[in-house]
Amino acid sequence: MIQKQCYSKGIVIVRFLALLIVFWLGVMIGYNSNFYLTEFHQPTYSSIKPFYRSWKESVTSSVESSESNGVTSHLSQLSGVTSELARKIGVESREASVGNWYMMRIVSNDLTPHHGENQTYLNTLTILKEERIPPGFRRFWLVNCIWNGTKEKQLIRLLESWGEHYMVLKMSNSTDAKQLYNEALNLNGARNTGIQRLFDLGAKWVVALDGGQFVPEESFPPMQKLFEDDTRNETFHLLPMIRAVYKIPVNSSLNFEKISPNTTGLHECTIAVHRKFLTERTAYSFLKYRGLLYDESRLFAKAERMTLLWLLKRQLSDKVVSCKGAFVGEPRNKVNLKQDLPLVRKCGWSYRLVYFPEPWAPYYQPRKSKRPEAFEELRTNLATLAEKNNSTSSSF
To answer: Which architecture characterizes domain 73-373 according to CATH?
Structure first.
């Protein structure tokens, strides 16, 4: 009898030890796994622990520094009050209270097959993992009208898990598929809403990035030199952008000169805008369209940024637009180091991550547009959503 009891206790202990070993292996796998996930899920603390610690330490030191200077901590009011405009269109938010220079990113729908199925989530994860924001800069995400509810929730959970500041523009419950389509592709409306919101929060400069743009460490000093100099007169700054051609490892120490063989030439650059634009806008007679800065009548892929860039370059002087040479008009196939290197050293630069970051995606990814197929697929999905909205409203 005693032997049986001892034997039973031994089995329990062995099973308990086996569970501990399995748990330890799981933690170690999460600890060392890369962040290109094959399916959607919220990363566990164990998988982001080393990066969360470094982020938390940098934020803590930044907060202590800002508080010592009498500036409200950007972590003290993470659920800021939403503006009247945001309330009207339906917004969830977790916002900073006050900041100086904001790196704002618009994250929206994956347009397959033009984009990879998980492009937005995976590229966002890469930015969170690898980008290093120096003191004085803040990151802000605007989640824009994502029709797939599961993807939207997973993206929000990801931002939450990293303690990021964000705002969500909800897609309406319209039964009109065309209206839903316009909402999904009105990125300019999202840009204007985000810029206005950040200025409301006290931002001095807002850099309006796309969701997949990565800013390396060497790009921040040139921007900071402009942003912190109150004697400068510029209202706008143009940040050069190049696109990835090969799926190579991305980290904060990317060097323009070394990475140039793996990229295309300069593309549509990013616009940074100073808060004084709010009082100056009426003086810009050429901005006759609807919208704060970007033309909201132009949907995605309808020259929605190109038009504004041409206006800034043609209508305004170098005293108003910093780094006008960053906008080259039509994209080039290759980087011209002799011409581009002095430009990016003066202005900074951003790196457009690949459209297909999934592990099974090809290593070489030349830019091939499949927008017509992507727009048709989006219309089909939104038509289904409109029917669902209609059946839901009819049931009440």
So the answer is: Alpha-Beta Complex (3.90)
